[in-house]
Write a structure and sequence with these properties.
With about 180 residues, the protein is mainly β. The chain has one domain: OMPT-like (Lipocalin), CATH 2.40.128.90. It is about 10% helix and about 70% strand. The protein has one helix and ten strands, in the order H-E-E-E-E-E-E-E-E-E-E. InterPro entries: YfaZ (IPR009998). Keywords: Signal. This is Porin. Pfam families: YfaZ (PF07437).
Length: about 180
């Protein structure tokens, strides 16, 4: 088990060691999110954290691949999701999904979505889904400003209530390195 965990951490740290990535913070009505995404050649890694004082927290670690398609960059992969929601047990899910980034001059239009059915989640979870879409203004090579919409939702079953940790517009900033 320790060797597997050490191997996973090593793979996730490769893009960070190559200094290719970005760190983003977002704030919306009742929620706050922070994300790291790194890339090395075609491999991408991600770490996300989403919190809402009324609903709880969602954290995830992801691994995927990316490929250019014209000016767009397509991404596909999976995430291991941990849900620490208010007034219920902690839950887990393995979500699959992807995203796209389309640069247009000094702006980038982006979107991503992930989904886990009940078969890919712990007991008490009917499904998990998340989505984020927006526009990023690339002010400089290192700093960008974001505006968009984020959704993070766990559908409950077996007595667990459904919870939306994020469902609204946000503004944010990104540091690219």
């Amino acid at each position: 088990m320790k060797k597997t965990l050490l191997g996973a951490l090593l793979v996730l740290s490769l893009p960070m060691a190559a200094q290719a990535g970005d760190l983003t913070a977002r704030v919306g009505d009742g929620f706050f999110g922070a994300s790291y995404e790194g890339s090395l050649l075609l491999l991408t890694t991600s770490a996300d954290w989403l919190t809402n004082d009324d609903a709880g927290n969602i954290g995830s670690l992801g691994l995927g691949v990316q490929a250019p398609l014209g000016i767009a960059k397509l991404k596909a992969g999976g995430k291991l999701v941990y849900m620490d929601l208010k007034h219920q047990d902690n839950h887990y899910a393995a979500a699959l999904g992807g995203g796209v980034d389309i640069p247009i001059g000094a702006f980038t239009i982006y979107g991503q979505g992930y989904y886990a059915p009940s078969g890919f989640a712990s007991d008490g979870v009917d499904h998990y889904k998340e989505a984020r879409a927006g526009v990023r203004w690339n002010m400089t090579k290192m700093v960008s400003l974001d505006a968009g919409y984020q959704y993070g939702y766990m559908g409950g079953k077996d007595g667990n209530r459904s919870v939306a940790v994020a469902d609204g517009f946000y503004v944010g900033a990104q540091l690219n390195f």
